[in-house]
Design a protein that fits this description.
The chain has about 190 residues and is mainly alpha-helical. It has one domain (about 1-188). The protein is about 70% helix and about 0% strand. It has helices spanning about 10-45, 50-60, 65-80, 85-100, 105-115, 120-135, 140-160, 175-185. The longest helix is centred in the N-terminal third of the chain and has 38 residues, at about 10-45. The termini are far apart.
């Protein structure tokens, strides 16, 4: 038997209540879908990061584009350490970008290619350092060390990409070493 309230206002109240409750449920579903989409995009940007780190970065308001900038600014710094980007350094950087889902034609890839053609300015580097220090203060020591260690390995890979004498040895120049040390200090 169907329930029929005697008061028509009661029916209107019930309808309004359930409409509001449905709106809230729908909003929660949308937020969950958006959160999952951000997690997936962040996993593409940082494929080696664990779920806890990805969630923490998202809580700090860091999106995949920012994460890519955090990764690629120091790599560009190292590539430009000797005053020019060597062909193998460029190739190593673009390969690293491709591995992180930064395919040709994407805005992030275009920015990276721009940095490889024109040295990033001091303002960008200073912003990167401030950002890393601010975000780093919100992470645990282990997470910060993990990010730092991965970043330093990637910078060393870029620095050693050009090779030493006749390309037979992997040599990091004093200028590149100084930039790598500067990057390391930023994470402390």
């Amino acid at each position: 038997m169907e329930y029929k309230p005697l008061n028509p206002d009661a029916r209107a109240l019930e309808d309004a209540f359930f409409a509001e409750e449905n709106r809230r449920l729908l909003q929660r579903l949308r937020e969950k879908r958006d959160r999952e989409a951000r997690r997936a995009a962040m996993r593409e940007a940082l494929p080696n990061a664990d779920d806890a780190l990805i969630d923490q970065l998202l809580e700090l308001g860091i999106g995949p584009e920012t994460a890519l900038a955090v990764v690629f600014v120091p790599l560009a710094m190292v590539a430009w350490a000797d005053g020019k980007v060597e062909p193998r350094e460029r190739e190593a950087l673009l390969h690293a970008a491709e591995e992180r889902g930064m395919s040709r034609g994407t805005p992030a890839r275009e920015v990276l290619e721009s940095w490889l053609s024109h040295k990033p300015g001091a303002e960008l580097i200073a912003s990167w350092k401030r950002y890393v220090r601010t975000v780093g203060s919100g992470l645990g020591d282990e997470e910060r060390r993990g990010i730092r260690d991965r970043m330093l390995q990637m910078t060393r890979d870029v620095a050693s990409a050009e090779g030493g004498f006749l390309g037979l040895t992997k040599k990091i120049s004093p200028a590149e070493r100084a930039v790598i040390e500067e990057i390391e200090q930023t994470f402390l």
